């Protein structure tokens, strides 16, 4: 099968190449999925799991990408709840070959049914962004109606999901980004916008939850905006500066079939919009992950027509 592979950690995305790889086989509790569309996170090539297995042994060359939408072609021994020919989407294991390929072997529990009225490109854009926003807001942040949220990077793939889900939950949402992102952030449902280059972040006052996807100085300054009992939520790195009277939480997103179902249902009924910035083919994937211009939103690779 054709797949994008990486073998040189120092080269970053420039070291990605299209190559032939053996088709995967389904282990116990696995399924094999013919991938129609897949997603990739720009920081994947800095993750230890991209290069080593759980015992810290080198596992290159590896296939990156962890989001997928496609059709099941084979079931492993003991697999239940899914069937050959079924449309699915989900989140592949960090320590296994990923989804920038024509086929992937994946644990059945990491997949959810993809309704027939949801396009594969849309399905592939949901797992990491949607689950990260859902788990950060509701599992770790325990967001409630009437609370206030700062969604950093609100024009991006995760930030736009945070904005929409928080707004639907009854929160007051303040989105941040660059000046050019203002209208896009407001269109996704933010009630206020902060231009991080030209506005003063601290002018927003105290909030109940900050969802940080930026890190660095923005993360440090955000700690001071958390009101008593609030939460600084980050997916970048553990907070160096913690809120005085609140929590600082960093987490790694996990696959969850029920939550994937909640997310895709919101897409179907119009409560949630995806944020796809670019769609490319597998043959053009290397160029897509080394863009010559800024892409606002998720890059999706269309693998199978």
Give keywords.
305 residues; alpha/beta; seven-stranded mixed β-sheet; 8 helices; globular
Structure description:
The chain is of the alpha/beta class and 305 residues long. 21% of the residues lie in helices and 28% in strands. The protein is built from eight helices and 15 strands. The strands form three sheets. Strands 3, 4, 5, 6, 7, 14 and 15 form a seven-stranded mixed β-sheet that branches. Helix 3 packs across helix 4. The chain is globular, with a radius of gyration of 19 Å.
**DSSP strand tally:** 15
> Helix segment count?
8
Radius of gyration: 19 Å
Low-confidence stretches: none
Percent of residues in helices:
10-25%
Structural category:
alpha/beta
Instruction: Tell me the fraction of residues in β-strands, as a range.
Output: 25-35%
H/E topology pattern? EEEHEEEEHHEHEHEEHEEHEHE
Give a brief description.
The protein is α/β, with parallel strands linked by helices and 305 residues long. Helices cover 21% and strands 28% of the residues. It is globular and about 55 Å long.
In terms of topology, how is this protein built?
Elements: E1 2-5, E2 17-20, E3 30-39, H1 48-51, E4 67-75, E5 87-91, E6 103-107, E7 111-113, H2 120-124, H3 127-140, E8 148-151, H4 157-168, E9 172-177, H5 182-187, E10 192-195, E11 207-212, H6 216-223, E12 226-234, E13 247-250, H7 257-268, E14 276-281, H8 285-288, E15 298-302
Parallel strand pairs: 8-9, 8-11, 9-10, 11-12, 12-13, 14-15
Antiparallel strand pairs: 1-2, 3-4, 3-6, 3-15, 4-5, 5-7
Helix pairs in contact: 3-4
